[in-house]
Amino acid sequence: QVQLVESGGGMVQAGGSLRLSCEASGRTFSTSRMGWFRQAPEKDREFVATISSGGTLRNYAGSVRGRFTISRDNAKNTVYLQMNSLKPEDTAVYYCAVHSSGTLSSRSSYSYWGQGTQVTVSS
Hints:
- This protein is mostly beta strands and 123 residues long.
- The chain has strands at residues 4-7, 10-13, 18-24, 34-39, 46-51, 58-60, 68-73, 78-83, 92-99, 110-113, 117-122.
């Protein structure tokens, strides 16, 4: 069993930055690919970014590429999402998840999920 706890969300003005953290319990973190997703009100949960178990391979959604950076610290069982140049359309609840198998950008490819952290960007 894996438990994920996100933190670091909040309210920020457009153009600002936030760093989200996701701490994982369990011994399999260092061997697991991790991902970040987000869900805005009345919208489907969408892929944001993913990182390989060793941290060398990263993929991003087109809407965040160049502004967001995913990273991880396996010694701390933590994955991060650095968000810069935030826009009002980035407002959503952000979730981290453990990739199990399948398409990296597909929600159904991820098994364990955190409870989410709210990010609100004002214009």
